[in-house]
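Hi C.,

You asked whether I'd gotten around to modeling the 119-residue construct. I have! Everything is below, sequence then structure, no commentary in between.
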Amino acid sequence: VQLQASGGGLVQPGGSLRLSCVASGGTLTSYAVAWFRQAPGNEREYVSCVTTGDFTYYSDSVKGRFTISRDNAKNAVYLQMNSLKSEDTAVYYCARDWVCREGGMRLEWGQGTQVTVSS
């Protein structure tokens, strides 16, 4: 199974982006899917996760601004990011596992998509 993260780009502070994570060669439906991010010089940071039962979790830094969702028909998970701040600048990765793990998902990871928030 390969995960493909996309949707990153350059956006001004206060703007929005929607990231997509699509699986090929397998399914996301029966798995938890999480988003992590890593900024230069920083450790990888947990952002959000959606369980197989569609429960959602968010880090305190993005709660109220980001929304994770899944579309089983498209075998995809999305991260809607609103009210973006400069500190959201990072490479964003999606990953899958049987459960949500803030310390890192144990199955496949996508290649990452760059999000840059700057005026």
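If it helps when you're writing up: The chain has no helices and ten strands.

Thanks,
B.
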